[in-house]
């Protein structure tokens, strides 16, 4: 069963367009305000091997070369967040792929206009999140600590 409770994890990437536009703080702030627990963060430059795996579901698409070029155009900020049903919660916060149609209030809906330059990546299922977190983070780069605001973020029966 795919139920990790409050320890469910997901991968978020702040993409090159957001790095260039100075949106790192704005994006991280939204996850902070939601009550998510960050357990890993690093700036990294992506290479072809990693991108082929990360975007394997898009490898045959005509836009894959430009997607790959874009994702290598600057470093990204990779983050791992933890929380109850966090994979779904983060997807909702990010909004749909085509930013100019993404719901107002979502990160893409508020901060972007493009399909490819859509400021963030977020894992799309619990199964993929597990693979993506392992792809981007070594075990020692993920931190186990007590977050004191969990007392107020979750009810007793959710912890
Ligand atoms: P998402 O990032 O919302 O999970 P996805 O996994 O289908 O979307 O695609 C990954 C990225 O590839 C997406 O964020 C932007 C790019 N992309 C997807 N569809 C595209 C298209 N039709 N044209 C150009 N880029 C596209
Ligand atoms: Mg995706």
Taking the sheet with the most strands, its summary is: 4 strands, antiparallel
Oligomer: single chain
The number of domains is: 1
Named CATH topology: Alpha-Beta Plaits
Q: Could you name the CATH homologous superfamily?
A: Nucleoside diphosphate kinase-like domain
Quickly give the structural class. Answer: alpha+beta
Distinct compounds present = 2'-deoxyadenosine-5'-diphosphate, magnesium ion
Whole-number average pLDDT? 97
Number of strands: 4
Task: Tell me which CATH architecture applies here.
Answer: 2-Layer Sandwich
CATH uppermost class: Alpha Beta
Beta fraction of the residues?
Answer: 15-25%
- Using the alpha-carbon principal axes, give the shape: globular
Tally of separate helices: 8
> Largest sheet, order of strands side by side?
2-3-1-4
Distance between the termini: 18 Å
């Amino acid at each position: 069963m795919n139920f990790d409770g409050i320890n469910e994890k997901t991968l978020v990437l702040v993409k090159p367009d957001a790095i260039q536009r100075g949106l790192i703080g704005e994006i991280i702030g939204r996850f902070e305000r939601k009550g998510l627990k960050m357990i890993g963060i690093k700036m990294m430059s992506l290479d072809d091997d990693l991108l082929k795996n990360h975007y394997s579901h898009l490898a045959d698409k005509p836009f894959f070369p430009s997607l790959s070029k874009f994702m290598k155009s600057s470093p990204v900020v990779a983050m791992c967040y933890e929380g109850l049903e966090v994979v779904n919660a983060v997807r909702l916060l990010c909004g749909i792929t085509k930013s100019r149609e993404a719901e107002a209030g979502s990160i893409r809906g508020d901060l972007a206009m493009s399909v490819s330059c859509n400021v963030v990546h977020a894992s799309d299922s619990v199964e993929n999140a597990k693979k993506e977190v392992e792809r981007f983070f070594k075990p020692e780069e993920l931190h186990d600590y007590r977050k004191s605001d969990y007392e107020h973020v979750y009810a007793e029966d959710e912890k």
